[in-house]
Amino acid sequence: MVKISIIGAGAVGAQTASLIAQRQLGDVVLIDILGDMAKGKALDIAQSLPILGSPVSVIGGDNYTLTKNSAIVVIVAGIARKPGMTREQLLETNAKIVREVTKKAVEHSPNIIFIVVTNPLDAMSYVVKKVSGFPRERIIGMAGILDSARFRYFLAQEAGVTVDKVEALVLGSHGEEMVPMLAKIKGKPAIDIIGSEKMKKAVEKVRNGGAEIVHLLKTASASFAPAAAIAEMVESITKDQKKILPCSVFLEGEYGVNGCCIGVPVVLGKKGVENIVDVEMTAEDEKKFKLAANSIREMIDHAEKYIK
Ligand code: APR
Fold this sequence. Notes:
Blueprint: E1 3-7, H1 11-22, E2 27-31, H2 35-52, E3 58-61, E4 72-75, H3 87-108, E5 113-116, H4 121-132, E6 139-141, H5 144-159, E7 166-172, E8 178-185, E9 188-189, H6 190-207, H7 209-217, H8 224-238, E10 243-252, E11 258-269, E12 272-276, H9 283-306
Parallel strand pairs: 1-2, 1-4, 2-3, 4-5, 5-6
Antiparallel strand pairs: 7-8, 8-9, 10-11, 11-12
This protein binds adenosine-5-diphosphoribose (APR).
């Protein structure tokens, strides 16, 4: 069994640990600065496995020696934006946490593949790339799978069909400048089925998808859908499925972007990012993608200050 370590045993980290263990993708280590909390959640998950029929081990704590020789490290440690906190303050706090976590993880497992989840996602993926010095194939940000799933959900709602009849892709940044595209319902362009008004509504809802959940939960953010997206990535890597999935990766000229992490479709296999897939964009989507890249670049410039 490979070892998969999850740093951050909060809502997303714990749900991810549970899904990975249920699906028997590897032995799981859950790490948090709140060591007892991580240990407690790991025990709870481990005790669900005799019922769920999974033989993997799940342990937790605050000591990174537990993560030794992991194949994959998921970074989901950080804070959520609190009332009164500026984006810049969030960026500073999480960049410092992600820098520290990256260094400690690399010390114990020099060959890991990182899956980055902490927000602001694209900038944090860049922080991991910079701090680890790893080749870009081994740093993969989770965003596009989640945003695409939300898009599929909202399109299905507008069309009155089940989600399995809907295909969709969201590229670009994990934020306001995301680029929802390639939407199809029952194999036909979604706009032909639901019309432009409902299409606009679905797009608006995707952009607002995370915020809507925060608004309802009040003191927490989404966790079940993000965890499902992370598990999908872990599965494609550990089983070498080579699925094409939208993820945030460091581009070196692809899509006309250089030196920043942004969401594009990639092939995920046992080596991490095995290929960056080209999709054709309309001129309008291309413009939106460039805008997304510019806003991520601004965040990266700020993040650079905190990771020296
Ligand atoms: N090392 C390890 N764990 C840490 C550190 C650190 N330096 N700093 C904070 N943590 C832990 C916290 O103790 C907490 O248990 O990270 C966990 C974060 O959990 P939650 O607050 O429940 O946040 P969650 O909803 O899981 O989201 C985590 O993922 O989706 C993103 O935007 C989200 O950036 C956020 C992250």
